[in-house]
Design brief:
This protein has a domain of about 240 residues. The chain contains 22 helices and two strands. The radius of gyration is 23 Å and the shape is globular.
């Protein structure tokens, strides 16, 4: 492994985070919130110095990056970003402990939206902005941002992009990875700006429009009011519903539309299934909760909003859906696991994987009925290869295993089954609110330190789709074993 290049890249990530942290510093200073401003100021100066020295010390000619380095860089970048990003929250005194601050900021960067904050009104504007800004950064990915703004001639950045971008298959939309990153972030920025403008027309002030647009863009869901978006106008709720669905689509489709290939974009099989799930789910939920609201418009609005929020793993709420009938809550839990499209900012398994799993089951049934038949199947106009099918099946099996282990650990808590199960589902799929004790009207503040750390790891594994974190942990374990063996060998040599 090219460890020197890995450390060099991590130094660049620290530098980028320090620069980004200057924005909440200025917001805190602008509002006269000097404790928060000091916390951000100290952190971005220290992080900036550390990043600068790391980049200078590890600079070298060999810039080669392969798949292994890509996974390790992705994992440690997100861990480092979270560890540093949590410092201002703890130093400002607005969070009771560093672990709580770390949980909150991991939830931010992974676009989960799970919170340990009991009273949002007690947080300063700078901290509120930083929470939502981490959604925006993490939505598209900090490594993609790095590739867009920092020159890189290694020619192997695709390995980093594939390690960070969600979905079973990640490809360049143009020949150069750097240009792909620029296009993705340009689309991301334009959609965010459009939502900000539309929310301003709905009566939100600039600060509210920014934090909610960043939360929508990253499909994160951190709000600034206790009732999330419940007290905002129906217009704002409909705008956010529409943009949640837009950010849950594959960004490659937007590029195809911009390039004039509208027919190709409209033929997307994943998009058809995604929108079909949205329509069917909204219809069933609306029928199920119709008696709980006074008008048809209210029923449709709340049903569509919560469907979009959960399917895209955003986590905003307009009502306490924990009070909905069992059927509606069951549908929401299923949507939590499905998630949005590959290549979007949404979490979950991804619609594309669900399609491939179902097609795989269908092919296996056909093969059992007709052993001599060849059932390859197609997806998005291309044949489903054995490698792709095997990769999807392996990922799903690993997903179930990680969920089971995490759920067992969290089950040592005194909460009921529904609370613990949906807490793990919500964190692994980067949603935020679950049901019962972690519903939209509650939070994760009563969980123990151990459970908060385990759930934080689950959020990271969910955002990076398991493999980068597992491979990074394996590389550390392998290195420790290697170091231990080397020490044993040295001791043996000394004895002889």
């Amino acid at each position: 492994m090219n460890r020197r290049m890995v450390v060099n890249t991590l130094g660049r990530i620290i530098l980028i985070e320090s620069v980004l942290m200057f924005i909440p510093f200025m917001i805190s200073a602008g509002y006269g919130e000097w404790n928060a401003a000091l916390a951000f100021g100290i952190t971005f100066l220290a992080a900036g110095l550390a990043g600068f020295l790391t980049v200078r010390i590890t600079a070298e000619h060999d810039r080669g990056i392969h798949a292994r380095e890509g996974f390790v860089i992705a994992a440690f970048s997100w861990i480092l970003m979270s560890l540093i990003g949590a410092v201002p929250l703890a130093v400002s005194g607005e969070f009771p402990s560093y672990i709580d601050a770390l949980f909150e900021i991991v939830s931010g960067f992974t676009t989960t939206g799970a919170s340990v904050v009991r009273d949002l009104s007690a947080l300063s504007h700078g901290i509120l902005f930083w929470r939502s800004f981490t959604h925006w950064i993490g939505g598209m990915g900090v490594l993609v941002l790095m590739m867009a703004i920092i020159p890189d001639d290694s020619g192997r950045s695709i390995f980093i992009m594939r390690a960070e971008m969600p979905g079973p298959v990640v490809d360049k939309i143009v020949p150069k990875v750097k240009n792909t990153a620029k296009i993705l972030y340009l689309i991301y920025f334009v959609l965010t700006a459009a939502e900000v403008i539309m929310l301003l027309f709905g009566g939100m002030d600039l600060f509210e429009s920014l934090v909610h647009s960043m939360g929508t863009a990253g499909t994160g869901g951190f709000g600034i009011r206790a009732d999330s978006l419940g007290s905002y106008s129906p217009y704002c709720q409909w705008v956010i519903t529409a943009f949640m669905l837009l950010f849950g689509l594959n960004f490659n489709l937007y590029y195809l539309i911009i390039a004039g290939k509208i027919r190709s974009a409209l033929r997307s099989e994943e998009m058809h299934v995604y929108l079909g799930i949205a329509v069917v789910s909204t219809t069933i939920i609306a029928i199920n909760v119709a008696r709980m609201y006074s008008t048809v418009g209210e029923v449709i609005r709340h049903s569509a909003f919560q469907m979009a929020s959960i399917l895209t793993t955003t986590g905003f709420s307009t009502v306490d859906f924990n009070q909905w009938p069992g059927l509606s809550k069951t549908i929401l839990v299923v949507l939590m696991c499905i998630g949005g499209c590959a290549g979007s900012t949404a979490g979950g398994l991804k619609v594309s994987r669900v399609i491939l799993i179902i097609k795989g089951i269908g092919s296996e049934i056909k093969h059992l009925l007709h052993p001599r038949s060849i059932t390859r199947g197609t997806f998005e106009g291309k044949g489903i290869t054995k490698e792709l099918r095997s990769g999807v099946n392996s990922y799903f099996a690993l997903y179930i295993l990680v969920f089971a282990v995490t759920f067992i650990i969290v089950s040592f808590e005194s909460f009921d089954f529904e609370t613990n199960a949906t807490a793990v589902i919500a964190c692994m799929n980067n949603i935020g609110p679950g049901l019962a004790g972690v519903g939209p009207a509650a939070g994760y503040y009563d969980y123990s330190v151990v459970s908060k750390l385990v759930l934080s790891l689950a959020m990271l594994m969910g955002r990076l789709e398991l493999y980068p974190i597992i491979l990074a942990m394996a590389s550390i374990g392998k290195r420790n074993i290697g170091s231990a063996r080397l020490s044993q060998t040295k001791r043996a040599v000394r004895r002889s």
